[in-house]
């Protein structure tokens, strides 16, 4: 038999390599960065704008707070990056926030993080696509004019791509991401050069607009509250930072080290771009209002409902490069592209998290089998559906969507960091080596601060944004949480019910005999084959069973049975109402009644056809019968398929190569499994 | 074993009697009449109006042609009744038009009739309901004001009743039908009495309206054409006459005689009511216009769009009994009720015809298994959907719907009569007995005239109504015809492909050995049971197969396998991508490659749960695996079900008693089968 095992293994590994080469090749840092950073880097496309937007409520004068807010965001960013560098070292198997929280703080915390992440994936799609559309719109007006339509179109496109399992490559991520980063840095550098060295005055298209403050001369608590709100909007820049900690296995060795430094680099890039854009925005006099229609005034009159407020990055680019300049358009395109890539990362993360949750039986078990097309698709469709709903409800307005966004991020930040503190405590309890201990204590300190800070931000976000939409995100989390708890409960109940008792038990005692029954409608190849197979099984009794729904046909059947001299007794059940299922069920039950300790094996010949509509024309009675038989105790139901010519179609369809998207971010499967199982 | 057979038979017949008592009791004539005549009798509720409507095109003056048209309809009615009396005698098994055309004129003719009948059933529902609503509306204005809504509501109601399988009884038909007949006759008698004896002047509500003729002073061909159109509209009175010829088995013995006399009685009632209503309409000066809004003038001004033109029968009743009199309202209600019953007959006829067509493999085979709830429902839903569509498109306007109606009826009349002529010719060729011969020749003469006359009418209907909507009906027929031909072609192709060769052939030669493979995920009751069953089958090799989607779990499985000392070798397939289906398929293929003449029996333990949502949480991988295995040659797929506690729910659901509506019209099943098989 051993030879037998090698065959499929060889085939499998061969196939595996073919079907998923990317998963096998590890990522160098220069590729890993764009692969993982498209989400966090792209967020600088909307985060700065959000800050100005909120400040504008207190009038343009409040803009001078923006550097301080930027500074706060930078500190936060460094804290989070530093913390996650600890995760990366502690969980080389790619311990995502869910695993960290789950192992260290227990299932409830884990499930909370999971719910938060699921909601976040949905929002990543909604926000990134909407913002992408807005950026594209700054170059191509048509797009903004049909915002919702375009946004949904892009989501549909991404969904189809992911459903089809389009193979992604590092370069697909690398090119636009690097173009985007390069573009932004050029803009900052060139802007600084023009402003400081050449001393030309760069004016944003909105520079000579006025803002009618909603609250004149805010001060004291109200002002602090506003600044906090602006800050929490700025925190949008941190979304997606945790991505790398999931993807450690995809890095070249030394994995953790490389991941950590990539993380650091990413943080550095993000904050530089964030600050640079805010600075340029101030320099070029960008004006943004929360509801421009009324609050943005030009030559004394409000701009009105049909005014389109372009993103900060676009306005700045226009000011620095000049409108309609190649660079301006290029940057707009790159920005949009990176944002779409960011959305795409959610399409990879959602099913991956789903499969981990399924492994812990919080979601249907089958989602765990990775690369399973059907299971994968369910996740994709769910994600896309939810995202489209949000985009549609919020008219693809990134500003309003961001209000929902940041809650989930910080829930998982906080819990995962708290989990890390626990993690270090646990290890410190056992660790003797002083050097290691010092290192751990340092890590714990970092994570502790991270937990505290992110926790603080979470509170701020909740307080400042709850009424602005954060409650929707919380509601979503609650729903996910409840559903997953229910599913887990069900699985546990079933597991208990079917748990194998020690030693033989009532329903496991070996039954004494098998009665085989072959269902016959006509005599043709499928039935003859079924009979031949049935004979092979050497059951204690074997008989052919036919239901008399049409006396003429039955007579013909009996006659041919005789003529062919088939050496299996043919029994015919009467069915005055031309039913098939009921007589057979009754008969099987009667057999069981005769000898309760025996088993009845019902053998059903089936045609296998290729097209769904053909399927409608065959096996329907067989299907229903099988369905009912499953409810009858002490029965085995056997299908003997007969492949019709047309089935080749379906076969080819099924054989088609397919690889689950996102493999590039996950790293080689074997390693992942080995390590994750080791860490269990 | 003989004892074994009795058990289910007894159970079955017992069950059968319980579940379908009505089917067992034969109908006396007094019940048979209303059961079968609700459709043809109810048509006098709209037929007379249609005649006047068409005539009105040439102005009120043309009304004086109405008696002649009535006379023509009467002649036609007698011809058709006489012809069908022959069918009834020739086909005691209830040879419907389809069977008659099929057996005597060949499949093409049969299929044409079938298509015509299917279209007709749809129209019976649409027309009867719409007209019913109009009649109800003459008493309850609200109903007409929301015509379409009410009509659809009634269809939905009927559909649900039929889907639920509400048991019908003869009396349900008898009461409204007899009330209706009695009501109409009272109206005619009382009207005649008042008019002739008392000599009071009865005036219909529209008596003092004028009609603006669309064509002034028609003459010559134009006039003839108009009269022909009026006639073919009047033919609506004949719809449903053929019903009895389908239902002969439901009659008390002597079946044919009783059926024939019931048919005659029905014809007599129909014509009397038809003529009576037309006469009264003239006497009371009813005015009806094809489009009343503009052509119906009152005091010099058109009545306008919001004028509701009540059916003739209602206007006459109002004139004779006086508006708001009990009798008037009672008659309106009875009329509506009978019309709804007429629609209900289509709900019985459609699936019945479907099952006959399925038997001839023009429709999916499973529709043949009678009393099969699912198959039955499909028919019902298809019928209801089509009818609702028509009602919605034609705004529940019976006049416009009737334009589509009559084509189908006369297609089947003509073909079935022609078929009968052939039938007699065949028998005359062999028959020697002179008395019998004379009788046959007489029958043939009647059918020949019937065929000629109905054929003539068919031509008239086509010519006069084609542009008015008959083309829609024809289109529907073509679609049904094409679909059924395609299905038949498919079945024939498959039958050819799977035809059993004489003597042993390549794929039927008995394979040499069976390798049994039991799929194992964990060790629990279901898997242990599956193992126990598998052992019983004494296949040549037996092994347990597990797919390693999670090394930790697999290790645990191996350990427990050892611990329990299960005496079946456990093989574990690696699956780097956590797939289940592919590794198993590959493995099975490899087994086959090893020894091509052997069979692989894959045994899959399954949980059986009660609720659909539970089902989503289990067996998904198993299901997909089974699906794929069916495409792999040389495999038997066996499910070993394990019924979880919750499965009881579903079991109870499935056990629920259910009986197919329409049984009352079909007669006892055994007889029907015996006879139909005899007549084959």
UniProtKB/TrEMBL annotation, chains A, B:
Residue stretches spanning the membrane: 65-84, 111-133, 139-160, 172-193, 218-241, 262-281, 326-353, 374-395, 401-424, 445-463, 469-487
Residue stretches of biased makeup (Basic and acidic residues): 668-680
Gene3D superfamilies: Amino acid/polyamine transporter I (1.20.1740.10)
Localization per record: Membrane
Highest taxon of the lineage: Bacteria
Secretion signal, residue range per the UniProt entry: none
Membrane topology of this protein: Multi-pass membrane protein
Residue numbers spanned by region Disordered: 653-680
Swiss-Prot/TrEMBL keywords: Membrane, Transmembrane, Transmembrane helix
PANTHER family xref list: POTASSIUM TRANSPORTER KIMA (PTHR47704:SF1)
Protein name (record): APC family permease
Provenance organism: Streptomyces bullii
Origin organism lineage: Bacteria, Bacillati, Actinomycetota, Actinomycetes, Kitasatosporales
